[in-house]
Amino acid sequence: MKDNRSLSEIIKHRLEKLEKINSSSIKSFKYSFKNTTNSAQIFNNKDSFSNVNLSISGRIVSLRKMGKACFAHVQDNSAKIQVYIKTDHLPENVYDHIVRNLDIGDIVGVEGRIFYTKTNELTIDACDLDLLAKNIRPLPNIKEKDGQTYFAFQNKELRYRNRHLDLITNPSVKNIFLQRAKIIKNVRNFLDDLNYIEVETPALQPIYGGANAKPFTTFHNTLSQKLYLRIASELYLKRLIVGGMNKVYEISKNFRNEGMDKSHNPEFTMLEFYESYSDVNDMMKITEQLFNVIKSSMKKNIFKFNNHEIDFSKAFKVSSMKDLFIDKIGENIIEVSDDRLDQISSRFDIDISNYKNRGKIIEKIFSQLIEPHLIQPTFVIDYPIEISPLARKNRKYNNGKYVERFELFIGGIEIANAFSELNDPFEQRKRLSEQQNLVKKGDDEAQVMDEDFIKVLETGMPPTGGVGIGVDRLVMIFTEQDSIKDVILFPSMRPEQDID
């Protein structure tokens, strides 16, 4: 039945019920409640629970009162189960003082035995009931259809802003985050088994680096120092490689002061791992192995993502960026003149007015013309040096225009990025100096000079391969979610007054 009362009226009525409960002789709101089982275990082992006293706790998600008896569905962490509550089955006054004042959304503890109703529904016959928390602010959009109560809380904007309600009213959402936890656990187990060591690096840094991104800034009062929220773990993890920790990884929160869309959130989770005496080719093998381990844990090969079916049963494709340009445009734009690059941009109506260097223009053309078509898992190699200041030059070419780098694309978006890491301090200084020139031209995503990192490289860093994988995007693929907001519990949101 639809409740037309205003929210304030509902809250007022529930507060009146709470006052009655508090003034009753029945003590409510215990500090703890001991469950002997949960709903899923009962459903899965019905015979073993026959004629056994049991106790469960959870939130009331439907309630049907019938004078001296009522039916409720109680939802716990595993499932929901029906509970039959009758006056003469409970201790004295519990029904009149507590049950009559219950509402959908209240959290209760129930003791009793299972039985089957006339409609053959497995039900707990309550012999005692404790009110553990009172729902004052009602759950959203309660609907009834065919005798079933459910919650039509589907507005994504409201769901993201009220994740607690989303988890209560849309149980499938919780499963996404259980899967996320499983995926991250599999990542850790995979790297641990390869003898990588998990480490932690600073989130507050005096100099940001390791990626082309605009940082968030803050200020440390005691140190009287401007600090930056980490945009990448890379430069600190390489310090550990120099220090003799030959295999390291970190799963960390990174922060980039950038726009938001289906695949970008300013605060996101990143996996980075580095291995001494390896190169980008070794990292490619390990990355594909990691994806196959996760795929196997999900017990299927094909995943629906971005309106495509991604098939992980086949070997990942490897494509050269220059070959992809030739196939799409008819020429390798990495090696054309600046004027020709401008002509190609105009030909495909690509606005490059905000880009300060040819590397960014090449990247923009790639992202618009080629990236959306990289659907099945594809390693793209042979990147231009202008957009890869931390990668070694490609040993296959003598012209110095390419680096040893791959990016992994799945479903039309980038998932991973890897280098044969640049370990020559003199070359690194030159590359970062070139990035500084871009900063002066107004490129607020160019990398800054980090003198301390250069000094670290001067100590001597062994040849190293490194990989960065966007954990949120990884989870998107394997949970079949098309928006990053659906795999982050509390995504960044615009202020409500800014929403049209």
Structure description:
- With 500 residues, the protein is α+β, with helices and mostly antiparallel strands.
- It has two domains: 146 residues, Beta Barrel (OB fold (Dihydrolipoamide Acetyltransferase, E2P)), CATH 2.40.50.140; 326 residues, 2-Layer Sandwich (BirA Bifunctional Protein, domain 2).
- Helix content is 31%, strand content 26%.
- It is built from 14 helices and 20 strands.
- It has an eight-stranded mixed β-sheet, sandwiched between helices. Strands 1-2-3-5-4 form a five-stranded mixed barrel. Strands 9-11-10 form a three-stranded antiparallel β-sheet, with no helix packed on it.
- α5 packs across α6 and α12 packs antiparallel against α13.
- It is elongated and about 90 Å long.
- The protein starts with 6 loop residues before the first helix and ends in a 21-residue tail after the last helix.
- The relative contact order is 0.10.
- The mean pLDDT is 94.
Care to give the gist of this entry?
The chain is α+β, with helices and mostly antiparallel strands and 500 residues long.
Features:
alpha+beta, BirA Bifunctional Protein, domain 2, OB fold (Dihydrolipoamide Acetyltransferase, E2P), 26% strand, 31% helix, 500 residues
